[in-house]
What does this fold into?
Amino acid sequence: MASLRYILRAGKSAVSVVFRREIHKSSPAAVQVTVRDALNQAMDEELERDERVFLLGEEVAQYDGAYKVSRGLWKKYGDKRIIDTPITEMGFAGIAVGAAMAGLRPICEFMTFNFSMQAIDQVINSAAKTYYMSAGLQPVPVVFRGPNGASAGVAAQHSQCFAAWYAHCPGLKVVSPWNAEDAKGLLKSAIRDDNPVVVLENELMYGVAFDLSEEAQSKDFTIPIGKAKVERQGNHITLVSHSRMVGHCLDAAAVLAKEGIECEVINLRTIRPMDVESIEASVMKTNHLITVEGGWPQFGVGAEICARIMEGPAFNYLDAPAVRVTGVDIPMPYAKILEDNSCPQIKDIIFAVKKTLNV
It folds into this structure.
């Protein structure tokens, strides 16, 4: 069974190479950097900055990572700081948690967060709860990172979004980057944080290039955990999303703008602690709210946002019910046409906006 899982995983790493690489237009003083390279830069800079930082996981060292996120790090830092592990998530996640308790700052890579379920006792019971249970005497500065959510053609067991799973647990911080700047700044903040942080990346975004501003190119650049970013200003409706779906929201907003509908797009960046204040401020301005996520609807990130808006001061500003655009409430199908219809598409966001605004 272990050998079969290895073959499946090796195949997945090859699949990511063939995805079409998209390029976003550059601005002055910015350089084009893929999300993969931004994550690599973040780890490289933090490994160089702090000798307590190390990376462990399956194929992260000699193979340069299943998705090449750790490319070149083993050759630069050696066996003691870039560590290949057996295929045993509970084992190496436990090693990471223990190392964090002993004063190191491990980065634990899951080849996919779907396999983090093998280690969920270490993440929840050992990492998330220890600081509280020790009355603040024992911090656990560990980062759990890897691809999360739906990929392409890998079916139900490899296509789940864990944002709501881990954001449900007190003691964890959960971040979900979209572009290269998010990836670099949030991962660096996660590594420096004294709490366990779950970094939910997206496999389909690894090869996508974005502008990396002059500020973000600095080794001192970080993005504060717990703060959202308004990616597009608008005054008719608020779209709140995270990870790959932020791009879908921006694409939908561009289409709708041609019809005179101005969407405000919020990139959550952090799932826990959630920046509710930024969402409330936007809703008070636009009077309409749609949440967009790739995960399932029930007890999801969008459900939490809608509940928080209903319980807070922004509720009285809504001119229509808040709407969720989510993945379909089924295990992910394998067939491509079914898979496409199980994930939120740009047309679904446009339809939800027009329905909410009654246009």
